[in-house]
Automatic annotation (TrEMBL):
Name by which UniProt lists this protein: Arylsulfotransferase N-terminal domain-containing protein
Positions in coiled-coil regions: none
Pfam families assigned: Arylsulfotrans
GO MF term set: aryl sulfotransferase activity
Cross-referenced InterPro entries: Arylsulfate_ST (IPR053143), Arylsulfotransferase_bact (IPR010262)
Amino acid sequence: LEATGGLIIKILTKSYEIPLIPVGESTEVRLKILGIGLGIFTEIPNLFITASAPNIRTRGKRIVARILGPLVIKEGEFWNENESFEGYTLFSPMISLNTFLINNSGEVVHMWDSNFKPALSVYLLENGNILRTAFPGFSPRFWGGGIGGRVEIFDWNGTCVWDFEYSTYQYCLHHDVEMLPNGNVLMIAWEYKTAAEAIAAGRDPNSIPMGQLWPDHVIEVKPTGNSGGNIVWEWHIWDHLIQDYDPTKDNYGVVAGHPELVDVNLGAHMFADLNHMNSVDYNEEFDQILLSVHNQNEIWVIDHSTTTQEAAGHTGGNSGKGGDLLYRWGNPQCYRAGGAYDRKFFGQHDAQWIDPGLPGEGNILVFNNGLGRPGGGYYSSVDEIVPPVDENGNYSLTSGFAYGPEEAIWMYTAENPADFYAINLASAQRLPNGNTLICNGPHGIFFEVTPEKEIVWEYLNQEPDLISNHVFKILRYAPDYPGLENLFD
């Protein structure tokens, strides 16, 4: 047992023996220290616990602790991780220029460097390159959480082979991207709307923070050369609004009668960020896009088979509905189909379809942060839902009711729910063995749980302080993933 950092620190227990741990079981480790170290004026204490035995791989765990004396007991656990999915985990700490690839022992096996911090996602492509969002360090007009403006591709050796910037007084990339099968890249971005434009769209004049609004849109970029690209498709939520506030405006209507449209008077009552989308995913089978919309506490599905012109209207595409919402879930209050206690999502992140061939394929997995969860409970969950979709990508809805399902088919929370809470950031990924990989973003804690919700692997981002520890999203890749071929050369 070791400890570093803090103004005064003394370990009262140096070492002791623990019994051999059977598969699937754990043992408690108690570490007594004497110290002060709030992590504000001095380095925050780091407590290191290492367990080893003959013929068993050494396991270590680091606990970052705000210690306020005279005596605090911190507890850690070790477990046999034979049930974890062997692979390599990719992540990019928020306050870092580096992207790391680690094995299940927590060892860094590869690293990429950029001149810019992430904004905020990174992906390993099948050719061994990484696709990452980036923040150049400035924004001409607007600043919001997850701000970016730049997308980069690095090869395995760390050379930037492509970049694209989309940040002006009128628009700015943020949060997430998605590589399409054709090599184009989906990106989410804000766009600037004046107070006059907002009022013309039926927005309440008393709810225009900063005298402007920044709704979201999605662009598809076809890379050109080593820098730049052409926007070959786009979709704007501004083209799909409704409101029941101002009867003099063209989009005035009955919100409850149009769940395919979005009420312009929801979201952004304190800030100009109207929707705050924080993830984008693509379904190749249906040619549809899945969006996580933080400020509406919903996920949305839209049709990607449209032309840009059709995406701006209400007809066309495989769905015949143009750019209107095909499906939404998480907060039926947004379309007057439920009350406060019908709400399911609370500041959610990382909505994604579970990939074909994986347990739960076609279902939607979401990290449900729990921000503002009713009952005063501050806890997060990972929710898996089964969307009411047929083989042609059509979603069923009974008029006057909310979209199904009524509840998640699977949900992970901590045994003591309050022990697992991420106020922002965070992600979840379904693994081939049926386990789920979870990132507790603001704490930099990664862990893997079985379908029975047993933790079988855990890792703490090894950055030196709590702010640097923040991680938006993690992804694990199987050893036979094509993008890892260079790792074994």
